[in-house]
Amino acid sequence: MMAGRPGDVSAAVECRDVSFAYGRTEVLQGINLTAGGGITGLLGPNGAGKSTLLEILATVKAPKTGTVQVAGVEASGGSNIKAIRRRLGYLPQRFDLMMWSSCRRNVAYAAWCNGVDPDQADDAALAALAAVDLADRRDVRAGALSGGQRQRLGIACAIAHRPAVLLLDEPTVGLDPGQRLEIRDQLRQYAADACVLVSTHIVEDLAVVASSVVVINHGELSYQGTVEGLAADQSEVDSRFQSPLEAGYLAHLRRSEK
Predict the structure, then answer these.
(1) What is the CATH T-level fold of the domain 6-87+163-229, as seen in this structure?
(2) What is the mean pLDDT of residues 126-143?
(3) In whole angstroms, what is the distance from residue 129 CA to residue 112 CA?
(4) pTM of the entire structure?
């Protein structure tokens, strides 16, 4: 995959006592999280705070309390934002594309916005499109792509500047099983020398690609560990109709509600 990413991915993402609130509504409370190289899955029920945490890591929102460090750079009081953004790629669940423009131009523009020299933006775009298997669609309008291809184009926009940290919010939502398999494989390859943090409701997307899992429930971090560790914890759940990871995740949620 792409070489020369800035930053050390051994502890690429760190949150220390991070909290966030919308008015009087607490969304995150005292989050302490460390993620390094490979894929870390972020699980939790709707409204648990997963998207808000990704927005804080992406510097879209500032935490109410606590500190965040991304790829060796700490966001402190709003400083260092530009340096952090050049080290990370972020794809929210809902993202905009220039539908009238080609895939190549969409990705080249994203690369330029993230600090790539204009003279190198086109080459960066072609490399990113190849990484998500869209090289043959480089001159096709974004609006002519299928849903799965648009998701891959969004990922290409997020990785064109070769970030050390990649944040993805529900990247496989609404996709068919074949499209999900393609994106999982591309993320696995990218994570070979990067930190990838993926929020998802599809537990099985993590079973074969994630190196670690984080569970957030009611704004609190309730599990951080290996996929195998979560899958092994299946008490209190009838696991006949779930995979081991799904059963372990459901058992953990039930226990954390008590």
Answers:
(1) Rossmann fold (3.40.50)
(2) 94
(3) 15
(4) 0.89
